[in-house]
């Protein structure tokens, strides 16, 4: 999903932030040294912002930070132990 499609699927109050970690996240996914902040879900996708890599805030452009994966893919990655859902209050980012 490209950034423009991402914005179309997003809730009306959503806006792209200049820096990672400035949004409100439903929950986070942690794994492989990374943190993903889940912003919203559609009927088929989990839409997130890539927040951290190796404990440091990422410095990527929004076109790279904002992504969507199918719910099936996320469920498989969580079940296989690649990612662990974490409540947002436990997953504070820089």
Write the layout of secondary structure elements.
Layout: H1 3-9, E1 27-31, E2 34-41, E3 45-53, E4 56-57, H2 62-65, E5 66-70, H3 71-79, E6 84-86
Antiparallel strand pairs: 1-2, 1-6, 2-3, 3-4, 3-5
Structure description:
The chain has 3 helices and 6 strands, in the order H-E-E-E-E-H-E-H-E. It has helices at 3-9, 62-65, 71-79, and strands at 27-31, 34-41, 45-53, 56-57, 66-70, 84-86. The model is unreliable at 90-94 (pLDDT under 50). The protein is globular. The protein is α+β, with helices and mostly antiparallel strands and 94 residues long. Strand 1 and strand 2 (34-41) form a beta hairpin. Helices cover 21% and strands 34% of the residues. It starts with a helix and ends in an 8-residue tail after the last strand. Strands 1, 2, 3, 4, 5 and 6 form a 6-stranded antiparallel sheet that branches.
Describe what is shown at a glance.
The protein is of the alpha+beta class.
Defining key terms:
94 residues; alpha+beta; 6-stranded antiparallel beta sheet; 3 helices; 6 strands; 21% helix; disordered C terminus
**Could you tell me the strand content as a percent range?**
25-35%
Q: Round the mean pLDDT to the nearest integer and report it.
A: 89
Total DSSP helices: 3
User: Structural class of the helices, strands and pairings?
Assistant: alpha+beta
Shape: globular
- Gyration radius from CA atoms, angstroms: 12 Å
* Fraction of helical residues: 10-25%
Annotation, overall tally of beta strands: 6
**Series of secondary-structure elements, N-terminal to C-terminal:** HEEEEHEHE
Distance between the termini: 26 Å
Largest pleated sheet: 6 strands, antiparallel
Low-confidence stretches: 90-94
